[in-house]
Amino acid sequence: MAAKDVKCDMLSHVSKRYESKPRDPDSVWTCVNSPDLPPFDLQPPNKKPGHFYYGLRIVTGDQREADAHDTAVYVRLEGASHCTGDIRIGQEDGLWTIFKEYFGTSTYDDIIIESSAELQVEVFTVGLKFRYPSSIAAKNNWYVDFMQVHDLQSTSGEPKTFSCYHWIGQGTNEVSCTSRNATWKEIQDNPVLVKQRSDQLKKRREEYKWKQYSDLGYPSSIDDVTNDTIPLDEEFERTKQEHFLGTLAKNQIVGALTGIKVFLVQAFEKLTGLSLSEDKSMTTLDKYEDFTLRIKSINKDEINVSGAFSVHEGYRWVSDVEFGRQVLNGVNPHIIRRCTSLPQYFPVTQELIAGVLGADLDKEMKDGRVYIVDLSEIMDGLQCRDGCYCPAPTCLLHVNRMGKLVPIAIQLKRKPGDDNPIFLPSDTWMDWLMAKIYFKSAEAQFHQLSTHFNSCHATMETYHVATKRNLPDSHPVSRLLLPHTRYTTAINTAARDKLVGDGGVIDQAFSIGGEGKKECFRRANSKHNVMDSHIMSSMRERGVDDSALLPGYHYRDDGTEIWKAIESFVTSIINIHYKSDEDVVGDKEIQEWAADMHDNGFPAFREVSAGRGFPKSIDSKNSLIDTCTLIMFTGSAQHAAVNFGQFEIYGYVPNAPFALHEPPPTKKGQTDIDFILRALPKSQTTLLSMTLVSSLVQHSSDEVFLGGFPKHWYTEGEEVAAEKKFLNNLKTLKEKLTKRNESLEVPYPYMLPSRIPNSITI
To answer: Which of 263, 401, 529, 663 has its CA 20 to 30 A from that of 708?
Structure first.
């Protein structure tokens, strides 16, 4: 039966400002809009017999320009039996909100309405009517945090809260919200909620269409989007946008992004006093340290937050122990594998390595003390920019008797031969240093393209688009995932244009810029597995899950703790809404979500080999819990681990250069300091790469860290209790890891819950 129209009138309206809780830099609750609001205390002036009175509270966000400027606001309240129609709120006596202090930034508006019938509100719609046609109107967008309905017939009882957290504006002039999170099965017999979900998803599928990258094998992204046409909810908020642009300007990278190197060079010379008028090789390694110190000085506040220490200090970067530490706990920590047998193209023998290893190689492999990082297949033969070279290395590592992981053999090309020596720690100091630099150069380029952009940025956008297309806001899985995809589409849109796109930073700063970059993407994507970020299965599959055999692997240890905390929270939420595996199988929205991800999100993966992409369907609670945990971990902890240590690793260019200007030596004994200096990036390329990574490690002032939720993201008792338990677990874990870090020579801060952004925002 269709809901009856009910006559409603607004009786009174009061607007007041609120103060958000200040940011606590030591709390995982950071930067969450949690206004302390007083009780609703308006009362109807004169009650009429047979009429019903309701108090509405609408809370506008504290973002810059969140106010409903120069518009008329309306609301619509709908239940099973009654619908109010549009109730005009933001206009009195024909005046638009430009003349009233209503619905301003950081305000709550309390309204009393009079109804001719009793309302059981299940859907609360807020919308805008614009004073001018959209073709000439200014960008008048309104951000609504949440709404509440107070039943004024009763003096007791809690208000019904409708969580919103959406922009409303041109192209999205209204948003409809429900007061509880529910699966399809829980609402399928309620026609009001069924229609609300159906209407929301129909609009979303128009906004969020798939774009597939068949040539490079990327996971699919949102289609036909630029920085100017991105959906309203995906845009950077003003605070984030200003910080992002300010960071780029401060680092003088804007000129480089557009190819104007003259601007970049002149600005840096003026700022630092270093001469870069010619793009030439450095004369000493100390010159690179000058760059590091100047960039750190420019960004001292942000870099200090991100970097644990400086590898250039005391020439720490040249040591084998530091090399091993970076393999385990640098920005590419999940490519090391236990080595039980050597590949044929890497002919390390007992005789060759006896003097280095001091033990039997076969026995050490059997005992779990030998590990390998093999980039030779992906990096072999990639086309490089003119005058640049990229090795295709394989590195063998060993856990020594002091429990330290150290490199023991490095081969720089894939095909063995007399012109491809295996370098050893027993070679000359310069030969061995050169081999480590060349290995790190290949690893750095692979890291940015595959580990960082593809496995984190691109993959999380795929999850986000599928979620927006198939799960309504009130679905408990959507509620779990959306905090972990905030800003991801916006940052990826910029990255595809300025970073990984044709003529972007990578084409200018990397050896494999241009066609080599594209081929690297193709090869990496041909081997990509969405389970690579599943830290529990990844550790087992790579044979690195035993802390007794491989000590000091803080990425593994801290990541496991974070995974378990997220998994516990996900389990609590899923158990509230699904009582059996059959409930999961019968949730048509979840099954459509999985099928869309499989068919359209990861189309390049489904035909190559089973188990690499997303499952076609989800058949159990455990599978759903595991999938949600994987997505949330990838967008938060995994990205934090592979991104925010970049200045530590790349901020001193000789440690891990993005480009090399000499081919790998074909014989031992040919390397000296002059060769290394000729091989390392020249001055202007050094500046470009350093300003890039110093920009990538910075948090904006509106960053939300793991465990941070808006005030009414969850509104019902069991969910709120699960949220609080999650936050308490993270606080306990933060204390544990902080205490552990105090005892480490080199702390590992990147998986502290208070350092893990909820989502990929940079």
So the answer is: 529
**Contacting residues for 517 by C-beta, under 8 A, at least 6 apart:** 449, 500, 506, 507, 510
Q: Minimal CA–CA distance to 751: which of 302, 308, 300, 244?
A: 308
Give the number of other CB atoms < 10 A from CB of residue 693.
26
Q: Where on the phi/psi map is residue 255: left (φ > 0), alpha (ψ -120 to 50), or beta?
A: alpha
Give the type of residue at 467: T
User: CB-side exposure of 530: number of CA atoms within 13 Å?
Assistant: 31
The residue-averaged pLDDT of 4-25 equals: 79
Q: What is the pLDDT of residues 114-147, one digit of tens each?
A: 999 999 999 999 998 876 655 444 567 899 999 9
The Cα 56–Cα 146 span in angstroms is 11
With a CB cutoff of 8 Å and minimum separation 6, the contacts of 489 are: 221, 222, 225, 230, 231, 234, 461, 464, 465
> What residue type is 706 in one-letter code?
L
CB atoms within 10 A of CB 713: 19
622: Cα separation from own chain's centroid: 24
Task: List residues bridging with 15 in a β-sheet.
Answer: 109
Per the structure block, which two tokens stand in for 209?
A: 């269409």
Alpha-carbon span 393 to 437, nearest angstrom: 11
CB 430 within 8 A of CB 672: yes
Average pLDDT for 386-414: 98
* Mean of pLDDT over the chain: 87
**Burial class of 650 by CB neighbour count within 10 A (0 to 12, 13 to 18, 19+):** buried
| Mean pLDDT on 343-366 | 95
In the chain, the domains with their CATH numbers are 4-179 (2.60.60.20)
Tokens of 274: 């270093």
Q: Where are the alpha helices (DSSP H) in 447-585?
A: 459-470, 476-481, 488-498, 505-509, 515-527, 535-542, 554-577, 581-585
Averaged pLDDT for residues 89-117: 75
Q: Does residue 325 have a pLDDT over 90?
A: yes
Which tokens is 650 given?
Answer: 């790349």
Tokens of 534: 């599943």
Q: How far is CA 21 from CA 29, 32, 33, 34, in A?
A: 10, 8, 7, 6
Q: Which tokens is 467 given?
A: 């979620």
Q: Tell me the β-bridge partners of 108.
A: 16, 59
pLDDT digits (tens, 9 = 90+) for 174-212: 999 999 999 999 999 999 999 999 999 999 999 999 987
Cα atoms in the Cβ-side hemisphere of radius 13 Å centred on 43: 6
Residue 260: predicted pLDDT: 37
Position 239 scores a pLDDT of 53
Cα dist. 602→150, 296, 457, 458, 461 in Å? 46, 39, 14, 11, 11
Tokens of 112: 């009393």
Rounded Cα–Cα distance for residues 399 and 359 (Å): 12
Separation CA 307–CA 293 (nearest Å): 13
The rounded Cα 724 to chain-centroid distance in angstroms is 23
The CA distance from 268 to 121, in Å, is 60
Contact residues for 697 (Cβ-Cβ < 8 A; gap 6+): 302, 303, 306, 307, 643, 644, 645, 646, 647, 762
> Cα(179)–Cα(459) distance, rounded to whole angstroms?
31
Provide the pLDDT confidence category of residue 700 given band limits of 50, 70 and 90: confident
> CB–CB of 660/438 below 8 Å?
yes
Average pLDDT over residues 657-681: 97
Give yes or no for a contact between 144 and 59, defined as CB atoms under 8 angstroms apart.
yes
Local confidence band at 252 (pLDDT 50, 70, 90 cut-offs)? very low
Phi, psi of 114 (to 5 degrees): -110, 130
Residues in the chain: 762
